[in-house]
Here is the input.
Amino acid sequence: MSDAATIDTAVVAVRSAQRIRRDHRALTAYGLVAPAFTLMLLMLLGPLASVIALSFTDYQLGAPAFSWIGLANYQEMFADRVFWISLRNTLTYVVIVVPGAVTLGLGIALLIESGASLRSLYRTIYFLPVMATLIAMAVVWEFMLHPQFGLVNGLLRGAGLPAFSWLQDRSTALCALCAIGIWQAVGFNMVLFLAGLVSIPKQLYEAAEIDGAASAWARFRLVTWPMLGPVTTFVIVISGIRSFQVFDTVHILTKGGPSKSSEVLIHTMYTEGFEFFRSGYGAALTVVFLVFVLLLTLIKARLADRGVQHA
Amino acid sequence: MKTLRAIPLWPVIRHLLLIAGAVVLLAPFIWMISTASKPPEEVFSSELHLIPHHFALWDNLKIAFAKANLWRFLLNGVIVTVSIFVLQVLIALPAAYALAKLRFLGRDTLFALVLFGILIPPQATAIPVFLLLHKLGLLDSYAALVLPFTISVFGIFLMRQFFKSVPDDLVDAARMDGISEFGIVWRVMLPAAIPAVTAFGIFSVVAHWNDYFWPLIVLNSEQLRTPPLAVAHFRNNEAGTNYGPLMAAAMVIIAPLLIAFLLAQRRFIEGITLTGIK
Amino acid sequence: MARIELSAVRKSFDGTEILKGVDLRIEDGEFISLVGPSGCGKSTLLRVIAGLEPQSAGEVRIDGVAADAIRPSARNLAMVFQSYALYPHLSAFDNIAVPLRMRRLSAVERLPFVGALLPSRRRKERGIREDVAKVAEQLEIAHLLGRKPAQLSGGQRQRIAVGRAIVRQPVAFLFDEPLSNLDAKLRVHMRAELAQLHRRLNATFVYVTHDQAEAMTMSSRIAVMIGGELVQVGTPTDIYDNPRDIRVAEFVGSRKINILPGRIREDGRIEALGVALRFASAASAGPCRIGVRPERIELGSGPFSGHVVHAENMGSEAFLHLAVNGSDVRVVARIDDPRRLPSIATQVSFGFAMDAVRAFNADGKRIEVEFEHTERVRERAIV
Here is the structure.
């Protein structure tokens, strides 16, 4: 009886000692993650929830009160011509920039990989636009596209072609922004493709040659293109998400003009949210933007899964 | 036979194509340097020439530095990017270590939140974060530029992946040697993760040096402007009249990162393509 | 030096029980090996002793003191890891100095930059330097101290890791498969070195390995662990000759023991492959398994026969694979002189050495057998 009791207390003592050490460890772990997760709630997850909540209110910065107005912001948005123009322009921008930047990026990567000389020099040159501060380069582009003194029109005139006032013309403003977008994104895509190309085992090409794929094109179709599949979908989605976020060039070069011909989603959101301080309406625009970006991410995740299955 | 004859031809075509592409891609940089070196009368002439007749780069730089406090703006850029990076590391590393090497209740949930956080584009949270900073009275300050970016879920994810590859034995050895869990983060994990931290640092510094959206929203005061904002204002004030100094100012803003890039290309490309994972 | 006692130690991870109640008493100054197939829980047991993993139940005592609430570093044990676990950013010298710095320097003195300026730190550093130098001399690594781990070979890293363990003068050394990352030749060499080290330090060594040869060659006692339980603890000879469980018999020995199907007849006689042997057992009748080590199979005469299907000539010895006639059983036998190797397909008859037969019941537990001497003298087989 007394023996059993002492054993029991001993067991309890051991258990509690173990628990103290285990708790101590867990506490350390929570201590280590606490700052990060507090900030994450404060700066990321909280704001994300708020932006959705805000989109159902009529809150305006500085207003003393606000009220829940249900879907009114969305109704207003869908009835607004500017929103539809902005959405269409954004999609147009994506549809032009993504294929342009992806095919050019792939082409340059293939060209660089197809020979041994000057590889790193070319890689460096093509990567320069990625590194350069986009706002500064946008200013340079503006001058390049200057109707009178710009390089582009100068060259066109020299070749006997008609000149344009690129950024001031409704029909060309968005195209000019797309061109800058492609110019900036090509190097980034090229580097991703180069990484993909390097990881293709050389023996596959040798095997393809022995199996009768004599031309470079046949080897590309048989080996390169399928092996690059996952990288390609990845690059497409990344380019898509980045194009959806286009803002810097629009804001500094056209402010969405002339007459809304280059208005894009984030720029509309910026104008409503930070120039007119209509936070609720701006939030509704943000939600639309978020839906598109998350949609792209979902597609990426689905494609990535399928890529793994095929491999 | 045919392929044999094709061999000497292909490298020539390859170089021709790549050089042509490079010229197009470099045109803005070349034009920027060319314009920055021209006096106004040469800038405003319809006749195209690359090499200025009269070399005016120093004059233009002088005007640029006189019209805008470029040193101050560059310093702001350094202050902001360095503070962001240092705070990101201080906050992300302990969390990444705990997520990679410690067992505790809720770890998987927290990691799932990190993965979810990576998906959120920065523009999506702009309005609420702006309102929060407004409430806290922090708008138009260094804090407004730095605070929202101190938490990098991407950094946590990246470091966590890297720490996973650090052998558990090393952590256990440190515990046997008497290093505390907090000490392990800084004495063992950080030194082991230097390559990953460097890559992340480049990614972070480049992203925030070049960021335009956020400073545009939260700043008013001239003396706090970051480099991109400075160029934008310079352009708004001077456009149409003074392209030489404007191009010179753009050169000054771009130069620090481009020079760093040319000095350490491999590391930079590694760092920047990290965004690929994002 | 220390005595380590484990009583009823259990450990489970996410509902699976890794350690199912381990009792073990490790004597002061002994070299004990924990061996077993991978996943048997031997490393977990070592980590429980080290304090890196809190046990779910049971108790660990070091020199009579319950260690459960004591942090790993405060248990004053040293551990050498499989991957050596050297800090990659520190020189060999600094690696060895870490445990000393952690123990002797205060938090302030350890601060980077600031700490180095304190006079007390400088004084203590001098002591640390002397201790590291002493250990380096012992292990003949003085010329390596300035190098980083990446600049060292596997064997050199191993020595630095041992140095880091020795320098703190621990009460016991824990080794977690320290040789398995080395190439075969170096491994054999390091076995001898570790055994010498043990003799010189006269300290308690707890050595975990999946390589039974390491355990056999170095340790004073072996503890065989299978499926989270200690199946047998004993001297190497004891474990090899008298396995108490068929799993131990199969695990120990660089050539696997031959296991033949057998039966205990109603009269107590034991049959192997249907042939009655001159052994009897008191155990109840039914199927059993017979184990005979390759070197205890006598070729040339005996009740069994088979034909040679494969021969492995190792130079100093050879192994003959025989397909036993009338069954699908294969038997491996050792031949001392490879020059007398029969060719493939030769018919060979064979039998077992007198005291070589070990019998196990259907559960794999050892059963006692008695040898029926031709002169009717009964001799008890060792159990």
Remarks:
- The two ends of chain B are 48 Å apart (CA to CA).
- The CA atoms of residues 250 and 273 of chain B lie 24 Å apart.
